[in-house]
Amino acid sequence: MPDLTWFAWALLAIAAFAVGVSKTAIPGVTTVSVAIFAAILPAKQSTGALLVLLIVADVFAITAYRRHANWRVLIRLAPAVLVGLALGILFLAVADDEWVRKVIGVILLVVIAVTLVRRRIGQTVASGGSHRIAAASYGTLGGFTTMVANSGGPVMSMYFLASRFSVKEFLGTAAWFFAIVNIMKVPFSVGLGLITVPGLLLDLVLVPLVVGGALLGLWFADRIDQVLFERLVIIFTVVGAVYLLVI
């Protein structure tokens, strides 16, 4: 078990709770968890430990929103996501932590800008014959960022926002997407030394907080307004991108 101060444990508890909330109510909050884990734990251990908690939260998200997923979109994204995962594995093998953070931060800001411009002019990823290009670009970036830093949420949130999904369709599609991708990442994370015994022991302590956050998120998702939901997703994505660039 990692030797941490009470304050560090408190921050990790907040991060674990945020993981649960993000999976069942407000995608993008996970970026806060990524930041906290990276600040407290060694880089590799933080990524592996967080991955396990994300998978636990995925179970709740799938259970709640399994009927709301848009499988046409998921199938369309699959080839590009696999390419992104492969690129992420190669990047992790050669890049240091600082390069990883900066590259992801820049990618997120570009994705946000493109998404907001498209929404401004009334386009969606399914209009104008551009859905294949959008799926290829967002899917590759999503696979890449989720592999290198568990930061695929903001990228895919922008894609789902551009698709004009309702709250439940957004959460259901995201739930299945990340459940599948996160499970695929496990063997590679073990091979790269990201998942460790100390990290798993840490997860055992934090899992109840993930469960609590997921249950609160389920309550909140039934009451959140569509416009507020979309604004919160964008705000948390921007905050996460800026954080990755300045730390």
TrEMBL record:
Location(s) in or outside the cell: Cell membrane
Q: Where are the transmembrane segments?
A: 34-61, 73-93, 99-117, 138-162, 174-195, 200-221, 227-246
Q: Which keywords has UniProt assigned to this entry? A: Cell membrane, Membrane, Transmembrane, Transmembrane helix, Transport
Specify the superkingdom: Bacteria
Q: Which InterPro entries match?
A: TM_pro_TauE-like, TSUP
Is rRNA processing set as a keyword in this record? no
A Pfam family the protein falls into: TauE
Q: How does it sit in the membrane?
A: Multi-pass membrane protein
| Entry's family note | Belongs to the 4-toluene sulfonate uptake permease (TSUP) (TC 2.A.102) family.
**Which PANTHER family does the UniProt record give?**
MEMBRANE TRANSPORTER PROTEIN YDHB-RELATED, TRANSMEMBRANE PROTEIN YFCA
Protein name, UniProt field: Probable membrane transporter protein
